[in-house]
């Protein structure tokens, strides 16, 4: 890549080509051995620059220790930056936090990663950070016994931070780019909260506002507290049993700031009772409010601790991720009755996110698949017995004498099912 040229005066210089330009690094009076050593580091810098990569750790350590004169010559040919030009990792973290255009709660989540990076490599020069340092940092948070999903989230944020450094021209390459992220889902902390459990919890709630918080999370899939806090009585359409939800989490995504959620039969009476208890809203009276759950606007309200106490009072064992698993349980119930894209729209996320973070395999699924009841254990006998004793087609909720009264849509559904299953029926009735 480069060559050493010795002048007649004995002074040495390194010659190399950068694109179509020939460049020179003057070394002055230097022994042949030292000049060869410098040339090795220069070759590494040239290679890293050509492929937008990161120099070896030995090269970066050498750069930190060289004198100002040689560094200035390397800077002049574009192989490095001035000493302290990119600052330290701590400087990058401060700049990243200052320029982040995210919601306060997201910035608070970023702080876990920035604090971890600051403790591990915060005082290091930014340009000295290598892929080996990135691997070491990841190992340190794994060794801290953090959950796999937490490790994945911190790695994702760290990669974004150093990607910003590249974009801002502070680094030529991202030393965290190839760091393995892993999955942010955590199935070990997933729990399906049954309707029986929620019934006991609702009975243990101290008042109607707390019943509404639990019911909105479990039966409408609202995020707590952000989406429940934003509910107003004007968002409730009693006539059509629909609820307009404003989501701060997805407000930055076009078309996802507002969604409409059904008010099911489990949720409606709880909301109706709360509505009847609510004081009339007067815009001129600061003591009144149009919020559905006024308590959530009280400073210092600790929802998680209070819900823990309510669950214990109900005689139930608190489950992990209290509010997230209420929302996930709602998703599980809905997806077994409605198409995925409909459920995703009601919950305010994509079907992929639902499958990754919300949907769960439950014991009830295994029972249904293995045939817990006698009819499921012997479907052939059940179908054969039905066709012998009642040859007329049956429609849910109607007897054979009522078939003629069915509307055309139901008849078409029966005809379609018969056509799809004709070969199975022939096989069963040979």
Q: What integer is the average pLDDT?
A: 80
What share of the residues does DSSP label as strand, in percent?
Answer: 5-15%
**What composes the largest sheet?**
3 strands, antiparallel
Question: Total number of β-strand segments?
Answer: 6
Q: Rg from C-alpha positions?
A: 33 Å
Question: Helix- and strand-based class?
Answer: mainly alpha
What does this structure look like?
The strands form two sheets. The chain has a three-stranded antiparallel β-sheet, with helices on one face. The protein has four domains: 2-76, no CATH class; 89-184, DNA polymerase, domain 1 (Orthogonal Bundle); 192-363, Intergrase catalytic core (hpI Integrase, Chain A), CATH 1.10.443; 375-428, no CATH class. The protein has 20 helices and six strands. The protein is mostly helical. Helix content is 51%, strand content 7%. 23% of the residues are buried.
């Amino acid at each position: 890549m480069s060559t050493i040229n010795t002048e007649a005066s004995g002074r040495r210089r390194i010659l190399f080509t950068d694109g179509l330009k020939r460049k020179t690094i003057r070394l002055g009076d230097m022994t042949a051995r030292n000049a060869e050593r410098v040339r090795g580091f220069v070759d590494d810098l040239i290679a890293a620059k050509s492929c937008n990569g990161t120099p070896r750790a030995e090269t970066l350590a050498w750069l930190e220790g060289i004198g100002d004169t040689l560094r200035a010559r390397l800077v002049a040919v574009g192989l490095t930056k001035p000493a302290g030009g990119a600052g330290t990792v701590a400087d990058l973290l401060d700049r990243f936090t200052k320029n982040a255009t995210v919601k306060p709660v997201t910035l608070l989540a970023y702080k876990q990663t920035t604090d971890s990076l600051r403790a591990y490599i915060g005082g290091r020069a930014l340009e000295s950070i290598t892929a080996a340092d990135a691997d070491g940092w990841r190992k340190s948070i794994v060794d801290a016994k953090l959950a796999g999903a937490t490790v994945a989230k911190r790695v994702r944020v760290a990669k974004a931070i150093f990607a910003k450094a590249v974009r801002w021209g502070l680094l030529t390459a991202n030393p965290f780019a190839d760091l393995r992220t892993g999955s942010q889902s955590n199935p070990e902390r997933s729990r399906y909260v049954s309707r029986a459990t929620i019934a006991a919890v609702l009975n243990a709630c101290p008042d109607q506002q707390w019943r509404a918080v639990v019911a909105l999370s479990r039966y409408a899939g609202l995020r707590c507290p952000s989406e429940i806090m934003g509910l107003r009585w004007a968002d409730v359409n009693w006539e059509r049993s629909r609820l307009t939800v404003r989501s701060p989490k997805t407000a930055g995504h076009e078309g996802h700031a507002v969604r409409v959620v059904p008010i099911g039969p489990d949720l409606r009476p709880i909301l109706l009772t709360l509505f009847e208890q609510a004081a009339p809203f007067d815009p001129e009276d600061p003591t009144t409010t149009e919020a559905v759950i006024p308590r959530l606007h009280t400073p210092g309200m600790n929802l998680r601790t209070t819900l823990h106490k309510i669950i214990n009072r109900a005689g139930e064992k608190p489950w992990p991720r209290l509010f997230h698993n209420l929302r996930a349980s709602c998703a599980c119930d809905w997806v077994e009755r409605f198409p995925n894209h409909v459920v995703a729209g009601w919950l305010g996320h994509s079907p992929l996110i639902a499958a990754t973070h919300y949907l769960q395999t439950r014991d009830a699924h295994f029972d249904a698949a293995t045939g817990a009841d006698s009819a499921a254990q012997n479907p052939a006998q059940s179908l054969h017995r039905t066709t012998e004793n009642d040859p007329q087609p049956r429609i849910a909720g109607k007897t054979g004498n009522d078939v003629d009264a069915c509307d055309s849509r139901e008849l078409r559904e029966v005809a379609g099912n018969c056509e799809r299953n004709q070969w199975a029926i022939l096989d069963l009735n040979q």
